[in-house]
Design brief:
Blueprint lengths: L3 E5 L6 H14 L4 E4 L2 E3 L3 E3 L5 E3 H9 L11 E5 L5 E5 L2 E6 L1 H6 L1 H16 L3 E5 L17 H7 L2 E7 L5 H14 L4 E9 L7 H10 L4 E6 L12 H4 L8 E6 L4 E2 L5 H4 L4 E6 L10 E4 L1 E2 L2 H9 L11 E4 L1 H4 L2 E5 L8 E3 L4 E20 L2 E12 L4 E3 L3 E4 L8 H11 L8 H17 L4 H7 L1
């Protein structure tokens, strides 16, 4: 069976979501398939089941089909580093911080890393590889690990995701087809994504793509609600809420926000309205302010302190990892930034000290009276795994809010009328509905002819 590469017309065309969707289609037909992304530029990362760090998108894709997650799903993860450098995670462990020039001078080493990861997964089943950005950046092809390198070396069938919402869809499909042809590659099928309105209105568009471009159209997918699997910052504006909330939660949108999948249980909660905001003067509009993770904790803290941050002293707060660290009295950092010491917000006594060895661990944790399944992923160290008082709950533990009992306890403190819900059940139902709705506009038979 052929492997699949999911390429896109641009960033945010929907490659990550389509990769997840195709994995689920394959699973429904009893085909063992695994997600892969050679190189992911993302601050949204997580700890895999083998206690290594990978991009959240590949973790989400794998978990959607009940796979164990490992470093091989995403052998190269690149995050924002200090002084405009790239923070490189290779095979789930920190490699170093390189300038863009230094990174590209090391590209041959990283090609071997990517190749080894792909081969490892190929031994286990069909690989569904997600590309990055556009696959036809001509000035970049020799360094394009996520697109050209995979396609030329492993010969997967290329499924091209075209984002119709951005416009120019015919130009992007035809142009990509012709440019790929020049390097010996071809598109095997097109998925038109994010169509708003009646998809039957695109029937002539399908004829043009299939007859004039000679490319099968696998589906015209409508713009569908997906409030889980947050991969990038666009998700902070694209989720959909249909609620009659009794709690208004404001999530502070840090400049270097990361790992905000932690708030997905609030997004799915019918009793909680979630709003991302960037001006602390708006904090009193919410019943609770959520301080999520940050890729640059000290730099985001300094930006907060330029605002009316003292309003947080009289605000209900849920703080997670980076947001939690900001609440301490002092932060000593020579890892994420060059600022060795800065005063924290002073809402929790004690200091946070950044250490070279990053904590990466999935485990069971005791938080108050609750047993929590979650993980730690941080350089900052403090003597409190979690902290709670009348107004504040903070913790280093990611996915803490996934626990129904803890989340219900915290939100009842904010509004005694809050009654809670089963997050796991709601998550699975929401994801299943998305997949079934997408299938209604997807040509499964055409897809399997590619394989």
């Amino acid at each position: 069976m052929n492997d699949i590469a999911v390429f896109g017309s641009s960033s945010s065309a929907g490659k990550s979501t389509i990769t997840m969707f195709l994995l689920n289609i394959l699973k429904q037909h009893n085909i063992n398939a695994l997600p892969f992304k050679a190189q992911n530029f993302s601050n949204n990362s997580t700890v895999a089941d083998d206690n290594t760090e990978i991009a959240f998108a590949q973790y989400f894709q794998a978990k959607s089909v009940n796979l164990k997650t490992t470093r091989y799903l995403n052998p190269l993860l690149i995050k924002s580093g200090k002084n405009s450098h790239l923070h490189i995670v290779e095979n789930g462990r920190f490699f170093g911080e390189l300038s863009p020039i230094e990174y590209y001078n090391t590209i041959d080493r990283f090609k071997k890393t990517v190749e080894q990861g792909y081969i490892k997964l190929k031994q286990e089943g069909t690989v569904v590889s997600e590309g990055a950005g556009s696959p036809t950046e001509l000035n970049f092809l020799d360094r394009d690990l996520a697109n050209a390198f995979i396609a030329l070396n492993f010969k997967p069938k290329i499924v091209f995701v075209a984002d119709i919402e951005r416009g120019g869809i015919f130009a992007s499909i035809f142009g990509t087809k012709e440019l790929l042809k020049k390097i010996g590659l071809e598109i095997s099928g097109v998925i038109v994504n994010k169509f708003r309105g009646d998809t039957r209105l695109f029937s002539n568009g399908i004829k043009i793509i299939e007859k004039k471009f000679n490319i099968p159209v696998l589906g015209v997918l409508p713009y569908l609600e997906l409030n889980v699997g947050f991969e990038d910052s666009l998700n902070t504006t694209n989720y959909i809420q249909r609620k009659k909330p009794i709690i208004k939660a404001g999530v502070y949108n840090f400049k270097y926000i990361s790992n905000y999948y932690d708030i997905e249980p609030l997004i799915l909660d019918k009793n909680v309205e979630v709003t991302f905001f960037s001006n602390l003067n708006q904090a009193d509009l919410f019943d609770v302010v959520v301080l999520p993770g940050s890729r640059q904790t000290v730099l985001d803290l300094l930006l907060i302190k330029k605002q009316a941050y003292k309003i947080l002293k009289k605000t209900k707060i849920i703080a997670l990892c980076g947001g939690y660290q900001m609440l301490f009295e002092n932060i000593y950092d020579c890892i994420e930034s060059d600022i060795k010491h800065t005063k924290g917000l002073g809402l929790i006594k004690g200091d946070v000290r950044f250490e070279a060895n990053k904590t990466l661990k999935r485990s069971k944790y005791k938080i108050g009276n609750f047993d929590i399944d979650g993980f730690e992923m941080h350089y900052g160290k403090a003597d409190k795994l979690y902290f709670e008082d009348e107004n504040i709950f903070g913790t280093f533990v990611h996915e803490a809010l996934y626990n129904d009992r803890l989340r219900t306890y915290l939100l009842k403190k904010i509004n005694p009328n809050y009654c809670g819900y089963n997050y796991t059940k709601a998550y699975k139902k929401h994801l299943a509905q998305f997949i079934e709705n997408a299938k209604m506009n997807f040509c499964v038979d055409k897809f399997f002819k590619l394989l």
